């Protein structure tokens, strides 16, 4: 690509939407005419003849533990779709979290709800690295403190006011990390609300196909990104070449996937919520569904500008609470379209009796992740499954 073409392309991308950035943000790193980039399987690279040991240049790949062409491309796209941040990829989401804790070395942390695996990382950090006190958001903070929110939160899909937490953290010189796994771009842009770092489990919506393990840290500061990459090289917690390639492939369709799943989820949770009124509704049985949790149904705190934080809708994960544990245990096995499985973010819908994975969750609740099936097909499946649960209960009662 010539100089004028390169400049023109940069100008076009500066004004581009996420859907366009996800497709073209890495074009400047293409080295062949292939529209689909190659999977780099090499572990090492031939060095330029005139390059010195300490003078390879930023575009020179030396050893795959440090950089690779496909990893550079996926990180370029991830950074651009997050408001031009600087992205660093990892082998898993929990590896990314541990790397960020090692980088920031907080003495205290405000950790708002969140995935139980993240709590395990905090425990490991305390045991093996340094003391880390967990404090409330109402506690006066200090410069070395860290505020960490998962937005939306797992497993309910309810949302936080990112701006509120950012302002609170910055008042004391602390920093805010937003785990945006459950609502990636285009649903939210946490940097615009004051976040200092964004993290993702790439196994979820960023990949969207249940075939990638990976984690991502996005920072506003290029120096932070470079330091994180140096640490990653030493620890070896890199995302593999195949995983990087699969993730890049998936990011091309991120916008259309996430927007579709968000719209379908909004329709589904509103429909299921009508079944909480104690009477039969549109083919759904009475007295089975107790409550539905999701950002759409949430009572929001005063002053929370939710439309600014989530301008394009909420995530595609919600929790449904049934009126009995027996109903909850049986329900996940009654669907035709929803697969009983852990994790979320893929093109297929999943449902999980969450208490079995995370004992802290009530045994009457199930976590639901909506895929790309049609809303009418999903409704039919829910009618069939909920009525099947009631039928099983009637048969059991008759035998007794």
Task: Give the topology.
Elements: H1 3-14, H2 18-24, H3 69-81, E1 86-90, H4 93-104, E2 108-112, H5 116-128, E3 133-134, E4 146-150, H6 162-171, E5 175-179, E6 197-201, E7 215-219, H7 222-235, H8 241-251, H9 254-273, E8 289-293, H10 306-309, E9 317-322, H11 325-331, E10 339-340, E11 350-353, E12 365-369, H12 375-399
Family: Belongs to the trans-sulfuration enzymes family.
GO molecular function, one term: carbon-sulfur lyase activity
Protein name: Cystathionine gamma-synthase
Question: Outline of this structure?
Answer:
The protein is of the alpha/beta class and 400 residues long.
Structure description:
- The chain is α/β, with parallel strands linked by helices.
- Helices cover 37% and strands 14% of the residues.
- The protein has helices at 3-14, 18-24, 69-81, 93-104, 116-128, 162-171, 222-235, 241-251, 254-273, 306-309, 325-331, 375-399; strands at residues 86-90, 108-112, 133-134, 146-150, 175-179, 197-201, 215-219, 289-293, 317-322, 339-340, 350-353, 365-369.
- The strands form 2 sheets. It has a 7-stranded mixed beta sheet, with helices on both faces.
- α5 (116-128) links the parallel β2 (108-112) and β3 (133-134).
- The longest helix has 25 residues, at 375-399.
- InterPro entries: Cys/Met-Metab_PyrdxlP-dep_enz, PyrdxlP-dep_Trfase, PyrdxlP-dep_Trfase_major, PyrdxlP-dep_Trfase_small.
- Keywords: Pyridoxal phosphate.
